[in-house]
Amino acid sequence: MRDAWREPSLEHIAALSDDVGIAQHATLDIPNRHEGYCTDDVARAFIVTNVACGFDRRRDEAMRLGRIYLSFLLHAQRPDGRFRNFMSYERTWLDEVGSPDSNGRAMWALGHGMRYAPREAWRKICREMLERAVPRVLDTPFVRARSYAALGLAHAFEALGRDSRAIEAALREIGEDLAARHAACAGPDWDWFEDEMTYDNARIPEALLRIGAVLGDERLAELGLRTFGFYESVVVENETFVPIGSDGWYPRGGRRARFAQQPLEAAAFVDASLAAEALTGNSRYRRLADIGFDWFAGRNTRGSVMAFANGCYDGLEPLAVNHNMGAESSLAYVASALALARPAASDMLRLVR
Known about the structure:
Largest sheet: 2 strands, antiparallel
CATH class: Mainly Alpha
Distance between the termini: 33 Å
Number of helices: 12
Structural class: mainly alpha
Number of domains: 1
Helix content: 40-55%
CATH architecture: Alpha/alpha barrel
């Protein structure tokens, strides 16, 4: 059944979207307009549509949606390069400056757009927006926000033929910051960057893998592989992906939460696995990507199917599934399916043997 999902439908993503953006939340599979829109989800959606444009059966719909999402991001950016995040259904911005994560994800989407957007005009807009944002990329000390930004900057660096001093400098500083965090925190039984694993954990080693690849820095790439291996040892049990639950996280030396599992964790694990495969050529990482994707198909702690042809449930709880199908969850599933449908090792330089 999993193989039939490799090129998923965009039907639910389109149903959540209107001429402004994509609704954050849903009540079952119906958009919840009370919650409005956010840059976080629009950025994710723009990345998905860029990839979907590479599949003939999805191209027309993906082009239509991608134009809407890029317009939202253009509107969200402030003159100083930063981004707002929350917008009401009435099209009123609800914040002056968005969260660090939302700003990092916006940069991720723009860098991805510079490399993969289907139209030259869109790539030009993405470049202009990213160049306004780059001077602010190190404003935040938060590790995930920096990691999200690095994912976009790595794509942008490739798109420019590895010829941008500002982007190279930002990538190097983020890479060195991640390495310093690891050196300050890691110990014999804790090969990580912080004293607690929380959300979107695989994005941190993925950022190191991609920084190491584009800068030709084997030390950073090896650190990405090493820390991803530690994360794998925590979340893969008997060929089953068991992500850190948001109901308590995983404090160092404590018990890890096993529920309130979120689809974004599976998506991050798939992407990091594919980045490791692309970097090393080791097919073992493709198997890990499949294990992460199988979480959606029901190979998870409860044996519950989480995703269908066009969307995904919001979370896995101890006794039940959260049957709402919001943007973050459904985009996580679609992004993972599309990533696995692309040729292996298609977008990274191989460094580590």
